[in-house]
Amino acid sequence: MTVKTTNNLGVLLRSYEALHNWRALAMLAGSFVLGGLAISGGAAAGMSSGSAAVSMLMGLLGAIIIIVGMNASGLMLVDQAYDQPIRGFAPAFLGGVQAALYVIGLLILLGLGFGVILLAAYLLSLFGRIPGIGGFLGFLLGGPLVVVVALAYAVLLLAGPLMIAAVWHGEGFIASLSRAVGIVTQRPLEVFMHFLVLGLLVFPAVAFIFAVVFVGSMFVGGFFAAGSFGGMGMGGFGGMGGMGGFGGFGGMRGMEGVALGGAGMGGAGLSIGLVWFLAWSVVSLIYVLGMIFVYRAVSEGVESAGSEQIGQKLAQFKQKLDDYKPRPAPVAPPPPPPAAPPAQPPAPSPEPTSPAQVADTTHCPACGAAVQPDDVFCGSCGHRLK
């Protein structure tokens, strides 16, 4: 084990610092309490109405509340792990909703992948039913299939928490999955050692908190149970008096004690259940911060080449889909506007005729009488024209 790995394992001791983050603790505890109320109330409503749908619906609502609260507190703990200002409740809640959607989708995707592996193993196991060579094929396939399923389950267990932590660190949907799987496949022993040490560190807190809550629940629950059955005992004692009037009165008081004791026991049970949810929130907060430290330690130097390859494959697939899409007929471009006729040079203006030319052709310059072109003298005034 290298010095760097030892230091990273030592960082896990800081997991208990999560209890100093009061915002994350309040967010997680509040979500556990609200989720616990929804689950317990749904169970009580389902038992009273005899409808399992109400219990399932309220249980689903409670689970969603807890998941959103855990993701919101995880974002706050990421800020604490990197010594950043811890975000407020509203930004953490909104980020927790988005992270919860990513986490649910990724967990479903991981589950489907493991289901595909199980289906493939089942189909291969059918070769063992072939008459004659079934035993030989079973011998060849049995052991390798066990190894494949075991490795797939190990990847599922180790990659799940890393994938959730990657979502809290701001990775995308596909990037979180590929990065978590890449870390587990490249550093399986280091990841296992970190989670093993984290479990050993959190286990004392789990044992202590659950032990004290269990002892308190036993005592308090016993007190309420004793009060419930005490009313019935007093009623029985009154009925044994032999005097009809007083005995009947004692029986009525006993029934009231049973009813009140039963109601008190039910309310106490609900309250005790909420205390157990609070205990779970404290333990979960410690584990979540440790999970963030594990991700930070094992993800150093691991390139997310898988996410880039997946992104390239998706881009190529999208390009192929675009190529196969029917394209609209090309629209003919509008005809260009008619070109303006070329500018013609201005026509040369006729040269002005001199008065002599006008006189030679039409009129006498002296009197203005009309003359012929071949006249030498004007016929009116005798002016010499030529």
From TrEMBL:
Keywords: Membrane, Transmembrane, Transmembrane helix. The keyword ATP-binding does not apply. Residues 361-385 form the Putative zinc-ribbon domain. The chain crosses the membrane at residues 24-47, 53-78, 99-124, 136-159, 166-185, 191-216, 223-249, 269-295. Residues 327-353 have a biased composition (Pro residues). The keyword Transmembrane applies. Residues 324-361 are annotated as: Disordered. This is Putative zinc-ribbon domain-containing protein.
